[in-house]
Amino acid sequence: MENFRFYAPTYFCFGKNGEQNIGELVTRFGGHKVLLHYGGGSIKRNGVYGRVTASLQAAGIPYLELDGVQPNPRSGLVYKGIELCRREGIDFILAVGGGSAIDSAKAIAAGVPYSGDFWDYYATGKPIDEALPIGTVLTIAAAGSEGSPDSVITQENGMFKRGATGEGLRPKFSILNPEATLTLGLYQTACGITDIMAHICERYFTNTRDVEITDRLCEAVLKTMIEESPKVMRNPGDYEARANIMWAGMVAHNNITGVGRAQDWNSHRIEHELSAMYDVAHGAGLSVIMPAWMKHVMQHDVTRFAQFAVRVWGCDMNFAHPELTAAEGVARFRAFLTSIGMPATFAELGAKAEDIPALTEHLFSAEKEPLPGFMELTREDVSAIYRLAL
Amino acid sequence: MENFRFYAPTYFCFGKNGEQNIGELVTRFGGHKVLLHYGGGSIKRNGVYGRVTASLQAAGIPYLELDGVQPNPRSGLVYKGIELCRREGIDFILAVGGGSAIDSAKAIAAGVPYSGDFWDYYATGKPIDEALPIGTVLTIAAAGSEGSPDSVITQENGMFKRGATGEGLRPKFSILNPEATLTLGLYQTACGITDIMAHICERYFTNTRDVEITDRLCEAVLKTMIEESPKVMRNPGDYEARANIMWAGMVAHNNITGVGRAQDWNSHRIEHELSAMYDVAHGAGLSVIMPAWMKHVMQHDVTRFAQFAVRVWGCDMNFAHPELTAAEGVARFRAFLTSIGMPATFAELGAKAEDIPALTEHLFSAEKEPLPGFMELTREDVSAIYRLAL
Fold first, then answer.
1. Distances A136 to A169, A171, A173, A183, B5 between C-alpha atoms, Å
2. Which residue from B26, B47, B61, B276 could staple onto B161, CB 3.0 to 4.6 Å apart?
């Protein structure tokens, strides 16, 4: 096990009617004037917007609104938010929505006290220690951004999708009310499920030995997703299944499942190029890329893939031919994603084989070759993974 | 799943050489003058004391020492510590040791700013919101107190062993260096293993339905303990196994494995009477009581015990006779505890059958009948559990 630090000081309020505590929590964490940051009309249709604003009003907390966050959130709105916060003396940002609204709020929070261009953090990977405090009201179980120190933004100038991280970005509080997810469409729900499972896989496939506790926690989250996801697909109004998935999404990404080990974020990197070029949903892109990545890297450590197959997917171990067990695990993961309606091929995403060289080049225009990870990836490897996803 | 709040803002520094960061961390969390609180000579023999004091000295942080914490820590030393902190203007308590040193430090931390008798919190269960900040340097994987808001103290006036809890008691930071546990004796190691597993079991056996994610996380910790514990018993110097157990001990008790569900702490309550009357090691007492409690309550929910047997202990499910599977799980738990050298009977603890009425009466002198939990327990039930442990 590697040495590590783990610090996850977000206050979680989970369950029905959680929004009524927003006023109390904003005040507890020092907010006096709030920017309410969200996407479009869905939070107005499902009642979340009304409950959030009622709680702020009841607590006498003034707020301004900035809506218009898009999936794969863009730099343009971040610049606008920074300017607005500075002009209006806002000292707390409340994101209402999924990962996009939260990541956009984090970028604004980082940008307000920073004298340079907020994009510096995303371009250089410099950790973000200082930011305005933020809170979140989660409406989509997916990104895990409600409990993580991470943010991903697409720079419109060049369409680079890049991540930044830092202690300053951990939400002070997050309100997770599974009721807010009951009306979410099945496709978006499935995209979220895929993202959650990818967050675990990128931690699970490691070269670090002897991290049984973290392995087991990873497997716990994956098995929960395998158990609960079909329930939601059959009955989208199943509160209990939605609740399990929502909390699993947080556990998957606050890094309790990732400590003590090297991690591998190449599937996310490779997928980000697809989202950036075609504006596909992140989860859908991952559904296409992740199994392709697995097929490509499996030979690097057949035993670990066999463990994944046996412990997570319930495969019988083929002791004579472990590589068959390993392949069976990946096949079951692929079949699971298909069963929840997720795409398997470039064609289903509207992506094109002839763009593979451009996707690869765009990735390496901002990343050094080879990409570090479970298996180091050259340009050739990345192209091969895209081709496996055709 | 029940509504819940989860807030675990302890900063963990895990791995080799962690003690060298103490100065930095005390300063980060606002300490200017420290009370170093510990038990006896073991931290001097294993080098931890030297590394801790060197780090404080290097950071120029003045400190006083209060040693003498006993297993099942006593109220007398707590009163002494409160008086010392007030007199000397101490603003940060650093506990070095296992759960006893940490729980004693928490009690002192709660008592310093409180105008009444610190025991009020333990006698009434009133939550402790305000306390001096504390940090911990863990040397025994067991109690989980390094990441929990809980403290258990024995009041010498009457020998009542009682717990208190509150947000104010969460350590600001905890340093977990598995090297500090390499020289721990096998018996004490096994007591810690038992305590960790008990912390999970008391969360696992619940009447709350549909908390798959928390169930799976509980099972992850138990399976880790089953995998790693024999390694340490065979080779006490196995750093990797010690590291897995140490982190599992934190995960078992910071409540990430307990959210969203009713919990059952009756095994702990019933054991506390044994520790208080005979001063036995808490883990040894649990080893005797926990399987007895399981046998007594199994009929209340055979399915849940069957799940425990199948998922944790790898039993085959007997679909025709689930109660046999359930019993097999408890038998394997019992055998596991025996395999790591833990006692199974009153006699092995030096406890006596004729004391059962007194143990039961003493418990109910401070608790209402019936005890709430997975299965409500009357005086009769508690006596029956003690008898099953004979």
1. 12, 7, 6, 19, 15
2. B276
Task: Give B-chain residues touching A4 at CB under 8 angstroms.
Answer: 12, 14-15
Q: What is the pLDDT of residues A53-77, one digit of tens each?
A: 999 999 999 999 999 999 889 999 9
A15 Rama sector, left if φ>0, alpha if ψ -120 to 50, beta otherwise: left
Contacts of B39 (CB under 8 A, 6+ apart): B67, B68, B69, B70, B71, B97, B100, B101
Residue B197 carries which side chain, given as an amino acid letter? M
pLDDT digits (tens, 9 = 90+) for B322-332: 999 999 999 99
CB atoms within 10 A of CB B278: 16
Structure confidence at residue A279 as a pLDDT band (50, 70, 90): confident
Structure tokens belonging to residue A164: 């930044």
- Structural domains for chain B: 11-180 (3.40.50.1970), 186-388 (1.20.1090.10)
Nearest CB neighbour to B12, from listed A5, A10, A11: A5
Across the interface, do B220 and A220 touch by the CB < 8 Å criterion? Answer: yes
A244·B8 Cβ contact <8 A: no
Burial code of A111-128, b = ≥16 C-beta within 10 A, e = fewer?
A: bbeeeeebbebbeeeeeb
A264: pLDDT confidence band, cut at 50, 70 and 90? very high
The one-character DSSP state at B309 is: I
Would you say residue B161 has pLDDT above 90?
no
When the pLDDT of each residue in chain A is averaged and rounded to a whole number, the result is 96
pLDDT at position B158: 85
The predicted pLDDT at position B211 comes to 97
> Residue A179's closest CA among A145, A137, A144?
A137
The full length of chain B comes to: 390
Residue B279 has a pLDDT of 86
Q: Are A199 and A253 in contact (CB under 8 A)?
A: yes
Distance from CA of A224 to the nearest CA of B (A): 6
Summarised one tens digit per residue, pLDDT across range A120-135 is 999 999 999 999 999 9
Here the tokens at position A204 are: 């699970």
B135 closest CA partner among B216, B256, B38, B200: B38
pLDDT band at A174 (very low <50, low <70, confident <90, very high): very high
CB distance B213–A219 less than 8 Å? no
A3, A227, A244 member nearest B15 (Cβ): A3
d(CA B2, CA A228): 17
Tokens of A104: 């956009």
Residue carrying structure tokens 């939550």: B127
Chain B nearest C-alpha distance from A201 (Å): 16
* Cα B181 from Cα B246, distance rounded (Å): 9
Helix (H) / strand (E) element for A47: namely none
Residue B271: which of B282, B261, B256 has the closest Cα? B282
pLDDT in the model for residue A75: 97
CB contact under 8 A, B9 and A9: yes
Q: Specify whether the CB–CB gap between B386 and B285 falls below 8 A.
A: no
DSSP string, B198-213: HHHHHHHS-S----HH
The CA distance from A328 to the nearest CA of chain B, in Å, is 22
CA-CA distances (angstroms) from residue B373 to A115, B12, B294, B369? 55, 31, 13, 12
Residue of A nearest to B249 (CA): A213
- Predicted-complex ipTM score: 0.96
Contact B12 A11 (CB under 8 A): no
How much is the pLDDT for B372? 96
Q: How far is CA B367 from the centre of its chain?
A: 20
Give the pLDDT score at B2. 98
> What confidence score (pLDDT) does residue B9 get?
97
Q: Is the pLDDT of residue B383 over 90?
A: yes
